[in-house]
Amino acid sequence: MLVGRGEHCRHLLGGSRKHDREWLPRRRASRAIALIGGQSIRIGDDVIIRERATARCENGIFGCHIPTLPSQAPCRLCQHSAVTRYEPERLPIDEGLARGRRFLSHMDARRSVRMFSDAPVPAEAIEIAVATANTAPSGAHQQPWTFVATEDPETKHRIRLAAEAEERENYEGGRLPDAWRQAIAPLGTSADKSYLETVPWIVVAFAQKSTLMLDGSLRKNYYVNESVGIACGLFITALHTMGLATLTHTPNPMGFLMDIFERPQTERPYILFPVGYPADDCEVPDLIRKPLASALIRFPT
Ligand code: IYR
User: Fold this and answer.
1) Least trusted range by pLDDT, from 31-45, 198-212, 237-251
2) Residue nearest to atom 1 of ligand 1 (CA)
3) What's CA 19's distance to the chain center, in Å?
4) Which atom of ligand 1 is nearest to the CA of 176?
């Protein structure tokens, strides 16, 4: 019995070209799922165990887990239960506030960077950042994101050329409307995107408008923008926590990323993240954040 196109299996196997144009019999597909369970990222036992359970669960597949309602029975295959206790650490109020203040000051020190060092960044840092993004809440827990990471110089070169071609149209070809050009003028940006080749990693977040399921059906996803946006925020936060820098880069239109990364038509490029350490002489625009009074309004006043 055939279960889906090769495109889908490539998705499950994390880019294996071997299965690109094949239809796989169900037996092979099951092995693929088990393999994913076996290959789970090594960031603590907890993650490994949960990835394995999800991969085998009949209620959902790798990256596509559908939560069951409390009234529904646990999964017959892995006994993944419908509900579980949630008991986060209950902090004394002062301790919670102290942690919050420390976290705020940590995040307030983050800046978007365009001047990167070429110093290597271990693959595990990318795995940690994507695993953090993967904790994001999402519409119907559909987790409609794919993060594709490359450290391949040839791929980074192709991305730079394509991004600069689009940006030349934006900056020099008059594609950016005047008001937009004025809004970004203080940032001093241009069509030069040489940092795309300096950085050790480029990570692109793709949004899944729909997800191809193992049985070949197409599942429509809900609140895709909100979900992927939150995941990207967590990704940036994790990078910053590891002392790494990035930039939320959108060299629009970004269709070239679909071709370069061979993504299925169910996805669209969402944000391109160059990832690395800031250059030793890194400078950033001297921005001021708007005051809390402009960001937070208490109602009624
Ligand atoms: N994508 C272009 C232009 C640009 C757009 C915005 I909105 C910015 O905040 C900065 C730049 C570029 O990356 O240069």
Assistant:
1) 31-45
2) 251
3) 24
4) 3
